[in-house]
Design brief:
10 helices, about 5% strand, Fumarate Reductase Cytochrome B subunit, about 220 residues, 2 strands
Length: about 220
Amino acid sequence: MAPTSAGRAPLGPVRLLRFDSVQRVAHWVNAALFLTLIVTAIPLYFGSLFGVVMPRFTIEQIHLWVGIALPVPIAVSLVGPWGRRMRRDVRRVSYWTRDEIAWLTSLGRTAIDADKYNPGQKLNTILVAASIPVLLVTGVILKWFSYFPLSWRAGSTFVHDVVAWLIVLDVIGHVVMVVTHRGSWTSMVRGTVSERWAATNSPRWLREESPTTGPPEP
C-alpha cells in the first residue's frame, strides 16, 4: 500500500487482527457456559418446571459443575505466552480516559476518539468479569450451606439471584448490539476487522495498529 503525499496510507482492504484464536475460543466457551447456566437456572428458579426436560438432580449437577468451571476459560486464556493479547486487552479495559467517562455518563452523546473497545464495551466486560467470582462464591455458599452461618446463606441467595438476573439482561443487550453491529460479530468469529470498520469504530486503536494509516480519502 503506497503512502499518500502526507505520508499516510489510504484505507484499503487490509484486515486487522482484533481477536486472536485464544481470545475467540475463551469468548465462545465462556458464552456457552453462561448460556448453560441460564438455561439450567430457569427450572431451579421456577420449581414447577422441574421434570419437564430433566430430573431435578441432573439439572442441579449441571448447574453446579458448569458454575465451578466458569472461571476456567478466562484463567487459561490469561496465563502463559498464548495469553499475551488477552492480558493486553485486560489493561485496555482497565484504563479509562476522561473523554470515555464523559461519553458513558452522557450515554454516548459526546464525541470520543475510541480505543479498541468503547466505554460501553469496557463496562460490559468489567461487569461480566466481576460477576464470575460473585456467582461462584455465592453459589458455593448456597450448595454447601451447612458450613456457613445463616446470614451468609440469606445474603448469598439475594446476591446470587440479583447478579444472575443482571447477567440475563446483559446477555440480551449484548446479543442485540452484536446483531446490529455486524463488524463486532465477524471479528469474534473470524478474528479480523477491516481498516474502514476500525476507522469508524476504533480510530485510536487503528492508529496504534497502523500508525501510517490516515482517514479515508475523499
